[in-house]
Design a protein that fits this description.
Elements: E1 19-21, E2 41-43, E3 53-54, E4 57-58, H1 68-71, H2 76-80, H3 82-88, E5 96-100, H4 106-115, E6 120-125, H5 128-141, E7 146-150, E8 163-169, H6 178-188, E9 189-201, E10 214-215, H7 217-224, E11 229-235, E12 241-248
The chain binds S-adenosylmethionine.
The site of S-adenosylmethionine (SAM) has 25 residues, from helix 4 and strand 6.
Length: 258
């Protein structure tokens, strides 16, 4: 299974995996309905054990690909006002964008249309099935100017210094290795590139999403600031989510040993 590899603490903090991993033990759950399944994936790098908590927050289980229809449900546009989110992202033709944790590409295809054939969209996910579903949807819509990438829980495998914008839409709360991912995001942003962090509002009990799949602004700042990001803008006009824009904090230095 991806992202929640079942390491026993007795195995020590680090294992190098050079084989096909398939684990049904720890669930990748869908939103809003939980399911568990085995997800085979080739992992050829050193991956520390997944965290269960980070800075006082419980990390959500990865949404399983069997829940992908929920991401493209008919009501999504109305419930989440996706049109407004796209407007707020201020996408321009020619931009290079990363849809990180793209799922089945609900936003990937819309972003690809907005940046046009002169632009580029990288679509990254850790579940190959999600990328397959994205490919099917892209074929139907005849969209080819995107690059699907199978990342790992510690590395999105995207080029350095590449992106004008990285999107994390309903994704960050699932990162089992937040510091690894934030480090990689920092590296892959252009100097003035932005990270758009979109999360379901934990501050609002009326947002009908499981608590561990929501985040408060306070928690997001608590986690992103010490990882080298500074808040440069925000938007609070969506029905369920808040949008926070970050850039690399140029004065930031990693803590010793990181
Ligand atoms: C709730 S879905 C959101 C999908 C998409 N952003 C959307 O809004 O439709 C979260 C996705 O993030 C992916 N994901 C979780 N951790 C990831 C990681 N470390 N790197 C890349 N993708 C990840 C999951 O596999 C899942 O497809």
């Amino acid at each position: 299974m991806i992202g929640k590899l079942a390491f026993s603490p007795a195995w020590g903090a680090f294992l190098v995996l050079l084989f096909e991993v398939g684990s049904a033990a720890q669930g990748i759950s869908s939103t809003p309905n939980s399911t568990t399944a085995s997800i085979p994936v080739s992992v050829t790098e050193t991956i520390p054990p997944p965290l269960t908590h980070y800075m006082g927050r419980e990390i959500a289980q990865t949404m399983h690909y069997s829940g992908a229809p929920w991401l493209v449900r008919e009501a999504r546009d109305r419930e989440e006002d996706c049109k407004t989110l796209l407007r707020v992202l201020d996408l321009k033709p020619g931009m290079t964008v990363c849809d990180l944790g793209c799922g089945n590409g609900f936003y990937t295809l819309r972003v690809a249309k907005a940046v046009g054939p002169g632009g580029k969209v990288y679509a990254v996910d850790i579940q190959p099935e999600m990328l397959d579903l994205l490919a099917e949807r892209a074929e139907i819509e005849n969209i080819t100017h995107f690059v699907p990438i199978l990342g790992t829980v510690v590395d999105p495998k995207v080029p350095e210094n590449e992106f004008d914008l990285i999107l994390l839409i309903d994704v960050y709360h699932e990162f089992s290795h937040p510091e690894h991912m934030l480090r990689a995001i920092r590296r892959s942003l252009k100097p003035n590139g932005r990270l758009a962090q979109v999360e379901f509002r934990a501050e609002d009990p009326n947002v009908p999403i499981k608590p561990e799949h929501k985040m408060s602004k306070e928690q997001i700042l608590k986690e992103l600031n010490p990882n080298g990001f500074k808040l440069v803008g925000q938007f609070d006009g969506l029905p369920w989510q808040h949008v926070m824009f970050f850039e690399r904090d140029q004065g930031w230095k990693p803590a010793a040993g990181k």
